[in-house]
From TrEMBL:
It holds the Pfam family GFO_IDH_MocA_C3. Residues 144-241 form the GFO/IDH/MocA-like oxidoreductase domain. GO terms for molecular function: nucleotide binding. This is Uncharacterized protein. Belongs to the Gfo/Idh/MocA family. The lineage of its organism: Eukaryota, Discoba, Heterolobosea, Tetramitia, Eutetramitia. Residues 3-118 form the Gfo/Idh/MocA-like oxidoreductase N-terminal domain.
Amino acid sequence: MPVRFGIISAAGIAEKVVGVMKQSKHAEFVCVGARDLEKAKAFALKNNIPRAYGTYEEVLSDKDVQAVYIPVPTALRLEWVIKAANAKKHVLVEKPFASADQVKQMQEACISNGVHFMDNTMHLHHLRTKYVEEKFLNSNGFELHRVNNALSYYTMNDYPTNIRFNPKLEPLGALGDLGWYTTRNILWAFKYQLPVSVTASGHFDDQTGTLMDVSAILNFPNNKTATFNVSFKDVTRQHTELVSAGTLIRYEGFVLPFENEPYVFPRESYNPRQTITVGDVNGNTQTVTIDACDQVIKLFEQYEKDVANEESIKKAQKWAEESVRTSIVLDAVLKSIKTNTTVSLQ
């Protein structure tokens, strides 16, 4: 049976999620709440959602709602995740989070109320991610040495009105908005082992105080490393590479596939099949094409499985732990930037 969701906030990102879910059998949206009732009604009408409310509390009180999708700004997530958990609603929440401590509070609230917690990191559910994991990362013959990521999203056309440039609502700036993905990708590749230390640099905007770009080095045990660069000011790009002694794995659009993302990267035509490039020690490469996939639908497919019963909810607690670990690293990166020092995580 599809999971019945209510939406807390009629934020722009919710348009994308709802739009894709119209094609899915794993979830349905039964109501939406916003601070402005007219805005909620307009959102509901546009997206064929049965009910609209003028408060978030009404969504949590709706007896038909099994789970809530929470795309509110970062600064408000702790409050509404805990309120949702206390209302016995499963949680799907946008990321990042203000701190690892806040994620732990959310995790504890969900566990104590017997509800599910997952953040909306979509690329983890893509078939391309699963392929790399099964073919390489879980292979006995593959030992990962390093991961390099670059992710930038040019947002200066909306400067300074875009919410990304409001540190009161989005306190981590580019580190949270973009660095969440690069950090999560690194931890995923290293099977969620935490680095032993982090060294980072970044630039804060003089006018708004927004953290605009970040470069970081993560040091892991046994001389293994990872790097990432994220930016609001650079041309839009998103690529990752995973390196071993004998194999290079590289792919573009690792967060949102450029050729299969009509909401963020509109195209006249789309290619639902993504690719990865695999190289060897002699510089030879081959292109592997992955089966067609929409990662949003895959995420909700997983969510439906996770909330099937009490036992599946307990097994799915790994998602919250992955969110905690990602936030631990982001906390360390931010501390490194502010103190201009290498930060130990041991």
